[in-house]
# Entry
Amino acid sequence: MKRSEINKSLVEMENFIKEYRFALPPFCHFTPEEWNSKGSEYDEIRDNMLGWDITDYGLGNFSKTGFSLITIRNGNLAMKDKYTKTYAEKLLYLREGQYAPMHFHWNKMEDIINRGGGNVLIRVYNSTEGEGLDESGEVQVYMDGRKLTVPAGTQVRLTPGESIAIQPYLYHDFSVEEGTGPVLLGEVSQCNDDNTDNRFLEPIGRFPAIEEDEPPYRLLCNEYPRG
# Structure
């Protein structure tokens, strides 16, 4: 991705968040220049990859496969003695036409919440013993205190305010319902570790390769200088 495309996407998400009156923590507003002056007192942000994030899953087609996000809080499964939080929270921003590919988590349970905007569609499948896609079994889903049983491959619709609980080994993907507009999602979960806890149905990457065609508006969560 070009840095200019990343910058544009971050500003777009930032403005959408303001529209829905969700106040971000101070570190989300640090400029790249300010990060150069931040010492070790901010290591929790660096070590736990808090802050702005962009994924195109290494496919180089962000407008179709990928989305923008912010990790607001997170623990660290590899540094449990130093960081004792057992939970995480994110905001995700998807435009119409963007897609998050089919995957599950071995360990993390998460709630996906529609915080505002359009409708999000989450397709669900059970996984097989060999971690494939169970295309025939019925799937139990839990939405805002209600248990439902749906056929494999059902796209569960979340309108603003609605949520779904995603259990480990439950395959799921995300897209935005056509004609409803961009959507702001919340994610409340156990600790997040994108390096060890994502099982994608098809092998893909995580962070984009960046072409530096202009200065960064915000540093991404994998770009912080050490304090």
The mean pLDDT is 97.
